[in-house]
Design a protein that fits this description.
The structure holds three protein chains of three kinds.
Chain A: H1 3-19, E1 24-28, E2 42-46, H2 56-63, H3 77-89, E3 95-101, E4 109-114, H4 119-130, E5 139-142, E6 149-150, E7 160-164, H5 166-172, H6 186-189, H7 198-206, H8 210-215, H9 223-232, H10 239-254
Helix pairs in contact in A: 1-3, 9-10
Chain B: H1 2-11, H2 13-35, H3 39-60, H4 70-79, H5 86-100, H6 114-125, H7 136-152, H8 157-173, H9 176-180, H10 183-194, H11 204-221, H12 228-260
Helix pairs in contact in B: 2-4, 2-7, 3-4, 3-5, 4-6, 5-6, 6-12, 7-10, 8-10, 8-11, 10-12, 11-12
Chain C: H1 2-10, H2 23-28, H3 33-56, H4 66-88, H5 90-96, H6 107-115, H7 122-152, E1 154-155, E2 158-159, H8 179-196
Antiparallel strand pairs in C: 1-2
GO molecular function, one term (chain C): oxidoreductase activity, acting on NAD(P)H, quinone or similar compound as acceptor
Main location (chain C): membrane
Transmembrane segments (chain C): 20-47, 96-117, 129-149, 169-193
Chain lengths: 255, 261, 216
């Protein structure tokens, strides 16, 4: 269903390849390459497995760990499509394909919607059309079940919408800045991939110990990378928000 | 399984306290059956003073009232000698809970186990006080706790395992540990004093080092023939002071390795 | 002006609880009030005199060797004080052992000399020395009182709580006679002062934001 749009992907990768000074990695799950390997800089990398295998933070860590002097830029596939479309047709795409899923969504669906579209309307429309979702009260998350945030409108960088029952959202307390003590569950110690220390990072983030946050490699992370922590931790802190605060403050201090 | 996880995640700190307190009941039962009901007034005084201290601080700080230190009181009722003067137990409990938890902002914010600190304070403050000796029955009564805490996901099993292996290794290296070893102390203390999730290392390797260090210290501190309970309390307290350092060392080493790669 | 100086040095700018100076001697000699008082008097004498002397010759000390000169002056004063104590209060000077001699290295004395006396006139320097010495003495006496009463049941060797060993009821808390207890007492003092006077709390590099502290 996405084939028609997808022809712009290879063009987008080519365009990015022209701009990039060093290697360009295309990270994908499918065995079939998503684009032709015609540039010298271009490399295809395959990832599969658990949740974190889809995170760009994981890809960067595995392929070419970022350092202070060697920044790594990540471009998601929708933006790649948009770039490809722009350089080939000269028109900017304002549309975005969102996958819709979650325990309250009977079947998975894909919709092409404008950025910032009304999620409630989108979900209700889908429900009416095809028995979508159940009768239970439903919360709409912009983003996937792990990192998603309850929202009225589609967030700028999200291409997944999750329909879920309210209870699950309350448990994980997303968007919360008030924190309780961190209960050091064993699951927290192993929550980050590559054996990265999760507990020290969480403590440094909640204590605004920016020096430690930086030393623990937070400058190589995004909200999605720490979303798992907010989910497991009982302190109720939203580590995504805390990480964003810390990264902003670090960037400010550096400039 | 996922509903169990949700339940645990929903309860957080209170849930951990509840499980730990419930798992201390068999041990308390053993103490009562061995030294009689004389332990009950002590238990009452310990519980009152520990919880009163905690609640006073939370009142002053305008926080919701909690009673996490019920576990501290239960552990101490087992560790302290039954004949200890009640005012001594109460004073040291107030001082110990304040020093080990409330100074840092409450349970989960500090790095010390309140029961360990209080037991050490009692030993240091009142020379000649010997802590209770724990029996094999205490060890047996602790076994369900290992299972329950592991299922709840709050048992730092690396620290506990390393401690067990360390004790075995130390027995092989020196005979001091065998003369002072009491099963009850090692198992009960290992689970409830050393493997306290809030006082354990935050990194995987840090937990292993923590367990090993505690075993080594136990063997060395016990070499003079001191009683096993006091020795374990000293070893665990000394280890706890080094735990943040161990974590820091592990993180620094990890960073160096990353930088080289 | 002098009164304001002294009042400020007692609490707001107390050398021990606020500047965290002279901690080591505060630990060592505060096991009983008598030793604490003697130490306080010795330090007051040294601090006032050294501040006055250093201030009066401040224009003649070459900056490059000023620390050496200051230390020499302080050391001379300390030796004199120690000799006087040995001559007239031998028992006390034995209890204080090397700690009077170690006033030389008490960071409070050199700290005031360097921070104040070396760049201010004689009068204010004398007051500064006296004010800081009194602030130090206040804390030392407080800590000494707590430690002697709880650790030995006495105050200035007078019985406050009758000891159990002498037929009374009080069993001394052995911890209080050990050095760490001075840390605890000073720590609690600092804690109490700063909970009462929020303006004395230093800005922390980092910490939980207030709005993030939970009330649950």
């Amino acid at each position: 269903m996405l084939q028609e749009e997808f022809r712009w992907f290879a063009a987008g990768v080519d365009a990015i390849g022209l701009l990039a000074e060093e290697a360009v990695f295309v990270c994908q799950q499918a065995a079939q390459p998503l684009c032709n390997n015609n540039g010298r800089k271009l490399r295809i990398a395959r990832f599969s497995g658990a949740y974190c295998s889809a995170l760009s933070g994981t890809h960067v860590h595995a392929l070419r760990p970022q350092t202070g002097t060697n920044p790594v830029l990540t471009v998601d596939w929708q933006d790649t499509l948009a770039i490809g479309r722009l350089v080939n047709t000269g028109t900017v795409s304002w549309r975005r394909q969102v996958g819709i899923g979650g325990d309250n969504a009977g079947t998975r669906a894909v919709a092409t919607v404008p950025v910032g579209s009304d999620l409630k309307a989108l979900a209700t429309g889908l429900r009416k059309k095809s028995n979508f979702g159940s009768k239970r009260s439903m919360t709409v998350l912009s983003g996937d079940p792990v990192s998603g945030v309850p929202a009225a409108y589609l967030h700028r960088f999200d291409d997944v919408v999750t329909l879920t029952s309210k209870r699950d959202v309350d448990v994980s307390g997303r968007g919360n800045l008030r924190i309780n003590a961190i209960t050091p569950y064993g699951a927290l110690i192993d929550a980050l991939p590559f054996g990265q220390p999760a507990l020290p990072l969480m403590r440094a983030l909640t204590a605004h110990d920016l020096e430690t946050v930086e030393a623990l490699g937070a400058d190589k992370m995004l909200e999605a990378d720490v979303a798992q922590l907010s989910r497991v931790c009982t302190s109720g802190a939203d580590y995504g928000v805390l990480l964003r605060h810390a990264l902003d403050e670090l960037a400010e201090a550096r400039s | 399984m996922s509903s169990l996880r949700t339940m645990i995640a929903g309860r957080g700190l209170a849930f951990t306290t509840l499980v730990t307190a419930a798992m201390l009941l068999p041990g308390l039962g053993v103490t009562v059956s061995e030294s009689g009901t004389a332990v009950l007034p002590l238990l009452a005084v310990l519980t009152t003073s520990a919880i009163a201290t905690e609640m006073t601080f939370r009142l002053i700080r305008k926080q919701a009232l909690t009673a996490h230190n019920v576990t501290t009181a239960f552990i101490l009722a087992i560790l302290l000698p039954t004949e200890i003067a009640l005012w001594r137990a109460a004073t040291m409990t107030v001082l110990g809970v304040t020093l080990s938890e409330m100074i840092f902002g409450g349970r989960g914010f500090g790095f010390l186990n309140a029961a360990v600190v209080i037991a050490a304070l009692v030993v240091v403050s009142f020379p000649g006080t010997a802590l209770a000796s724990l029996t094999d029955m205490h060890a047996a009564a602790t076994a369900p706790a290992v299972l329950a805490l592991a299922v709840a996901g709050v048992l730092p099993w690396r620290a506990l395992g390393a401690f067990a292996l360390g004790c075995i290794a130390m027995t092989g290296l020196s005979d001091t540990i065998t003369t002072t070893t009491a099963w009850g102390v090692l198992v009960f203390g290992g689970v409830f004093l050393l493997a306290d999730p809030f006082a354990s290392a935050q990194t995987r390797s840090g937990q292993v080092l923590q367990g090993v260090l505690a075993a080594v210290l136990f063997a060395f501190l016990g070499a003079g023939g001191a009683d096993a309970t006091t020795t374990l309390v000293r070893a665990v307290l000394l280890t706890a002071l080094f735990v943040p350092l161990l974590d820091q060392a592990i993180l620094t080493i990890g960073r160096r390795i990353d930088a080289r790669a | 002006m002098a009164m304001r100086e002294i009042r400020s040095a007692l609490i707001t700018n107390n050398p021990v609880t606020q500047q965290i100076l002279g901690i080591c001697s505060a630990l060592a000699v505060s096991t009983s009030v008598a030793t604490a008082l003697t130490m306080s008097m010795a330090l007051t004498a040294v601090l006032c005199t050294s501040n006055v002397i250093i201030s009066s010759i401040r224009h003649h000390i070459p900056p490059s060797i000023r620390l050496i000169v200051q230390i020499t002056i302080i050391a001379s004063l300390v030796i004199v004080t120690d000799q006087i104590l040995q001559a007239y209060a031998f028992e006390l000077s034995r209890q204080l052992s090397i700690f009077v001699g170690l006033i030389v290295t008490n960071c409070l004395v050199l700290g005031r000399a360097e921070a104040f006396a070396s760049r201010n006139p004689v009068g204010p320097s004398a007051i500064d020395g006296l004010a800081n010495a009194l602030g130090y003495s206040l804390i030392l006496l407080l800590v000494g009182t707590v430690r002697e009463v709880l650790g030995q049941g006495t105050w200035f060797a007078m019985t406050v709580f009758p000891l159990a060993s002498n037929g009374g009821w009080f069993e001394p808390i052995g911890l209080m006679t050990l050095a760490p207890s001075a840390y605890f007492v000073i720590g609690f003092l600092i804690w109490a002062i700063r909970s009462k006077r929020r303006d004395l709390v230093e800005r922390t590099g980092y910490g939980l934001r207030r709005e993030e502290l939970s009330d649950d």
